[in-house]
């Protein structure tokens, strides 16, 4: 078959499971550079399209360890770039708590350093806990997306300020830059005034790849207009198909084709050589869960203090929060659909922070991924190992060969840039 899966690795140093770091032999620090390089190299051995780092801008001792103690993403990925050769490198930078010039410059730099492997995860920043660190109030949901839309447009405009051949470095004439091939941006909008140009030449990919994860209506519109890769939060095949179709149907309104956007549901695979082995691994991880941490995750995802509710009672009728729309909507829908107790949702969040958990033998995991891929629910998957490096090695060594044998996944990289892995064209420079 011509169409093949794309795989991303969601990199959390202590694993996606809230207590994954307690597994025997697991990495227990997101501040260990050698361990993070080793994980990236394992993903590259597995021929993953990219590794991806989320981020947050505050510290909470009750939160997931990797969101409280971690490297700054662009710094870490620059170090990883020097010790890998093909795998894409995606980092989160908030459009609410950064500025377009700095962001455009940083990702153009990472693209040059990595020779065309950079990706920017453009997020609005859901949590108001970051606001005091920047001396400002947290904008509401609608305002955050209005800011984000303009922010992304400015960043793309700055990436286009340099022509491909603007840098001459002509020793004979002494001309270093052709001024006719360098322009200012002169953007003056509701939220940003940016003159430009950047003080770095055009990126090897033209534009670094843009990643997004917004599941709300404004988030889906922004993704359909600007994103190359969209992460989705899923728990159910039917719901995933509907989300996938809805996003793809938005694309023609922005002059885009379905293949222009890669949709990757997040999944935490727990893999064994037999299903019994996999479920024993998951049971071990669940046995490590600290009630305080799981309850903090529950309150964070639903945007309200969940300690007020009986864990053994029904899931309360909660409004969607102004923070994590996608997680809350998906989890509430699943709870109503399956008649779950609040404790069931609590356990689901403890396992993978609200993401889909897929537990079984390597064959069973491959079967399910194939069903979703062929069935119009995904273009691939954002793999979220429960712990590192073991959870990733299980997937690379056991599941990837099955996908390759079925013709569903590459057996070698076809190119050296992230755009080549994703089958995306290199953007033409916009000059107006």
* Global shape: globular
CATH fold group: TIM Barrel
Read across the widest sheet, the strand sequence of neighbours is 1-2-3-4-9-10-11-13
Straight-line N-to-C gap: 40 Å
The total strand number stands at 13
Q: What is the radius of gyration?
A: 22 Å
Classify the beta-strand content into a percent band.
Answer: 5-15%
CATH architecture: Alpha-Beta Barrel
Largest sheet: 8 strands, parallel, barrel
Note the total helix count: 14
Which blocks of ≥5 consecutive residues have pLDDT under 50?
Answer: none
Please state the average pLDDT score: 90
Helix-strand category? alpha/beta
Give the CATH class: Alpha Beta
Give the SSE map.
Elements: E1 6-10, H1 33-45, E2 50-53, H2 65-68, H3 73-81, E3 88-94, H4 100-113, E4 118-123, H5 141-159, E5 167-170, E6 175-177, E7 187-188, E8 193-194, E9 209-212, H6 217-226, E10 229-232, H7 237-250, E11 262-272, H8 275-287, H9 291-302, H10 325-338, H11 342-352, E12 356-361, H12 362-374, E13 380-383, H13 390-405, H14 418-422
Parallel strand pairs: 1-2, 1-13, 2-3, 3-4, 4-9, 9-10, 10-11, 11-12, 11-13
Antiparallel strand pairs: 5-6, 7-8
Helix pairs in contact: 3-4, 4-5, 5-6, 9-11, 12-13
């Amino acid at each position: 078959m011509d169409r093949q899966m794309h795989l991303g690795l969601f990199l959390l140093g202590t694993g996606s499971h809230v207590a994954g770091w307690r597994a025997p032999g697991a990495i227990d620090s997101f501040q260990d550079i050698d361990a993070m390089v080793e994980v990236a190299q394992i993903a590259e051995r597995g021929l993953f399209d990219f590794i991806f780092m989320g981020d947050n801008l505050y510290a909470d001792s009750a939160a997931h360890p990797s969101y409280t103690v971690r490297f700054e993403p662009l710094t870490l990925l620059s170090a990883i770039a020097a010790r890998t050769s093909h795998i894409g490198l995606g980092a989160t930078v908030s459009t609410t708590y950064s500025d377009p010039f700095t962001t455009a410059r940083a990702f153009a730099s990472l693209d040059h350093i990595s020779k065309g492997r950079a990706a920017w995860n453009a997020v609005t920043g859901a949590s108001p806990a970051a606001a005091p660190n920047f001396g400002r109030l947290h904008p509401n949901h609608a305002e955050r997306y209005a800011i984000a839309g303009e922010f992304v447009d400015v960043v793309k405009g700055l990436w286009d300020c340099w022509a491909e051949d603007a840098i001459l470095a002509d020793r004979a004439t002494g001309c270093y830059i052709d001024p006719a091939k360098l322009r200012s941006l002169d953007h003056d909008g509701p939220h940003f005034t940016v003159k430009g140009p950047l003080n770095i030449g055009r990126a090897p990919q033209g534009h670094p790849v843009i990643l997004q994860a917004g599941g709300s209506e404004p988030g889906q519109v922004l993704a359909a207009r600007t994103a190359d890769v969209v992460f989705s939060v899923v728990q159910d095949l039917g719901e995933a198909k509907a989300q996938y179709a809805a996003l793809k149907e938005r694309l023609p309104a922005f002059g885009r084709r379905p293949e222009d956007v890669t949709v990757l549901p997040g999944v935490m695979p727990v893999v064994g050589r037999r299903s019994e082995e996999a479920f024993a691994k998951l049971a071990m991880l669940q046995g490590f869960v600290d009630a305080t941490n799981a309850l903090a995750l529950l309150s964070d995802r639903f945007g309200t203090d969940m300690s007020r509710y009986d864990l053994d009672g029904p899931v309360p009728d909660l409004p969607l929060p102004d923070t994590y729309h996608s997680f809350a909507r998906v989890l509430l829908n699943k709870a109503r659909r399956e008649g779950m107790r609040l404790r069931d949702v609590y356990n689901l969040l403890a396992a993978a922070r609200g993401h889909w958990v897929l537990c079984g033998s390597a064959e069973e995991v491959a079967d399910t991924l194939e069903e979703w891929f062929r069935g119009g629910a995904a273009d691939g998957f954002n793999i979220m190992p429960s712990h590192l490096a073991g959870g990733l090695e299980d997937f690379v060594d056991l599941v990837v060969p099955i996908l390759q044998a079925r013709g569903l996944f590459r057996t070698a990289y076809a190119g050296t840039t992230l755009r080549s892995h994703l089958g995306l064209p290199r953007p033409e420079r916009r000059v107006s």
